[in-house]
């Protein structure tokens, strides 16, 4: 995270499953709602893991807060649930 942003977001996704567009969707949604507030890492898993997780780091937080996990039953981030993910991120900024 650099000094011009409020936080950093890591999207871990299944590289072998072709989830890069899904990871980019998350990034675009965050950038639209919080322009310039976050830096990003989109990290592809090797092989087929089925994973799509969004972890947010704010301030000096080194642990991060998992705000979305396909593996934990939340499915993909899409139009029907993206606001919930964005609201979780907003709560971390308060």
Automatic annotation (TrEMBL):
InterPro entries: Selenoprotein_Rdx-typ, Thioredoxin-like_sf. Keywords: Redox-active center. The keyword Transcription regulation does not apply. The keyword Protein biosynthesis does not apply. This is Selenoprotein W. The lineage of its organism: Eukaryota, Sar, Alveolata, Ciliophora, Intramacronucleata.
């Amino acid at each position: 995270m650099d000094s011009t942003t409020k936080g950093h977001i890591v999207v871990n996704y299944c590289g072998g499953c072709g989830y890069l567009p899904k990871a980019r969707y998350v990034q675009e949604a965050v950038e639209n709602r919080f322009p310039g507030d976050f830096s990003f890492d989109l990290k592809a898993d090797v092989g087929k893991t089925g994973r799509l997780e969004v972890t947010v780091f704010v301030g000096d937080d080194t642990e991060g807060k998992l705000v979305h996990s396909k593996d934990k039953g939340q499915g993909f981030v899409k139009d029907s649930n993206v606001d919930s993910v964005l609201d979780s991120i907003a709560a971390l900024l308060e």
